[in-house]
Amino acid sequence: MTNGSEYPKSQDRNPIYTYNPDSQQPADSYYSSYPFRSDQPYPYAHYYHHSSSQQEMHIHQADSQMGRKQGMNGYINGSIGDGKGIILDTGGELGGKHGVGFNTDGHVTFNSIGTHASAHLGDQYGINVHGGADLNTNQGLQFNTGGQVGGKHVLNAQADGHLGLSQGGGFSTEAQLGGKYGLGAQANGQIGGGQGAGFNTGAQLGGEYGLGAHAKAQIGGGQETGFSTLAQLGGEHGLNAHANSHLGISQGAGLNTGAQLGGESGLGAHANVHLGISQGAGFNTGAKLGGDNGIGAHAKGQLGGGQGVDLGIGGHVGGHNGQLGIKFGGKDKELKESKDIKE
Basic and acidic residues composition bias: which ranges (predicted)? Predict the structure, then answer.
């Protein structure tokens, strides 16, 4: 009697079982359900165990490959001809939109060349950067760069520029920290291109109702040489101050300054002066409190410029105005003294 084994005296051989549907096979037996005839032995049980392990391994490999396909992808595209020259476009991504990715492209034609690139780490609230440059016979060289960290409410920066015979050279930069209510700064510049030379810069803290400053300058380009500055604290109803100046042949030299606290109905003051061949010399200064219906005073003076001598002072209290002036010379060659009180 073999007890299901054809090698009863051997301890080195694996047992070979015959199929018997009524026999009590172990619960973990892989071959207990195979429909072999009861009189036919199944001598390849150990091969079945090995085959099952291989099948599980292939399934794990397939799942791993699918995960790699979902987590990492890339592409390369290119074309030549069709009147568009050479075009190349490539990119890749690891970990989806929340991972790491990049895109680049470039082109070459008979009259232009350009390249652009962008990359990201994380989604829109991660790190995003981009840059590009183009050179062509019509617009010259143009470039732009930018970056963002933590979305639009954290840190943003941008820089653009151009250089060409027809447009001259110019740049534009901007940076923002903490969104529109945080700290922001910008600067622009231009030279040539029929516009002379100009510069514009500014900064702001706390949004439109916080602290802001602005300055610009211009030389040539069909415009007078000049500069202007502006500062603001607390919006249009807070504290505002400005100063402007100009210098040129037609308008001579001039300076304009002013300050205001509390809006149009608060406290304000201004002072202007000018000096030139055609306009002569003059000044204008004034102050007011409470707007047009409050209290105010002003004074002005002029010498030359075809107006002779002209002096005047005035003021208002509520809706009542008073002015006193004297004028001598000028085009009418008459001495005038006037006193005009209006109610």
Answer: 329-343
